[in-house]
Design goal:
- The chain has 7 helices and 10 strands.
- With about 280 residues, it is α+β, with helices and mostly antiparallel strands.
- It folds into 2 domains: about 130 residues, MutM-like, N-terminal (N-terminal domain of MutM-like DNA repair proteins, Alpha-Beta Barrel); about 120 residues, Helicase, Ruva Protein, domain 3, CATH 1.10.8.50.
- Helix 3 crosses helix 6 and helix 5 packs across helix 6.
- Bound molecules: zinc ion.
- The site of zinc ion (ZN) has 7 residues, from loops.
């Protein structure tokens, strides 16, 4: 599943190629994604310039002149960029290619085998996109300045859920998926089973720093990969080679040499070292 680092890598890559270009055509081959792609999308987007591409959690926000295209990669989505008309030809369509956004000389194509992705239009007349129902309830961005130990400490007070599950839940911080939750807790030396409300301020600070560091490393490495994901420029991500605990159950901890353990929390696998994490 594409996680925040992959989405951010995709955003940076697409922004570098598409910002400032006008949309020329939209072809929807399959509108049954998680929600139906609006029928009016082609008419709406035609001629509009893409001013900026932002990200909120795992949503890409394509800011056009008259509104924002909200996209999500779901379980298995990816965007590919091709040279488009008039300089390039429209590439042959594969079975799981569902939408083409054609810009001046560039083509962005959405591929999504499982079709849990989304493509929705938020007109400027509907107000700030941040108030869209999909975005309004999201927690702080892990890489923004307003996410830090104090904020995490506040968000964990009174919470009896394990810190692993709280980090995954998305209200204390967004975009920390299962791989990155295990990796961050290992980096911070925190037992994933500890009730969130029991963490001291100092440990919250360590965890917030670890989350930022782990996500930043993954973004720098080009995003992670789980089986079928490829980043927007077609290169496979590198994260599994760098994982320190995730997927390493039974192997030696890279710090202390004890075997890494695997447990299940909230139906999700957690990997951790019982010696390094307390
Ligand atoms: Zn260890």
């Amino acid at each position: 599943m594409p996680e925040l680092p992959e989405v951010e890598v995709t955003r940076r890559y697409m922004a570098s190629l598409l910002e400032g270009r006008a949309a020329r055509a939209v072809r929807v081959y399959e509108r049954r994604l998680r929600w139906p792609v609006p029928r009016s999308l082609a008419a709406t987007l035609a001629g509009q310039r893409l001013q900026r591409m932002d990200r909120r959690a795992k949503y890409l926000l394509w800011r056009f002149e008259h509104g924002v295209l909200i996209s999500h990669l779901g379980m298995s989505g990816s965007w590919r960029i091709y040279p488009g008309p008039p300089d390039g030809a429209i590439p042959a369509r594969g079975r799981h290619d569902h939408v083409d956004l054609e810009f001046d000389s560039m083509l962005a194509r959405l591929t999504d085998p499982r079709r849990f992705g989304a493509l929705l239009w938020h007109p400027a007349s509907a107000g700030e996109v941040e108030r869209h129902p999909l975005l309004a309830g999201l927690g702080p961005e892990p890489l923004e300045a307003d996410f830090d130990g104090s904020r995490l400490f506040q968000a964990t007070r009174g919470r009896t859920a394990s810190i692993k599950q709280l980090v995954l839940a998305g209200d204390a911080v967004v975009g920390v998926g299962n791989i990155y939750a295990s990796e961050s807790l290992f980096d911070a030396g925190i037992d994933p089973r500890v009730p969130a409300g029991r963490l001291s301020r100092a440990r919250c600070t360590r965890l917030a720093q670890a989350i930022r560091a782990v996500l930043t490393r993954a973004i720098d490495a080009g995003g992670s990969t789980l089986r079928d994901y490829a980043s927007a420029d077609g290169a496979q991500g590198q994260y599994p080679l760098q994982a320190r605990v995730y997927g390493r159950d039974g192997l030696e901890c890279l710090v202390c040499g004890r075997p890494i353990r695997r447990i299940v929390q909230g139906q999700r696998a957690t990997y951790w070292c019982a010696r390094c994490q307390r």
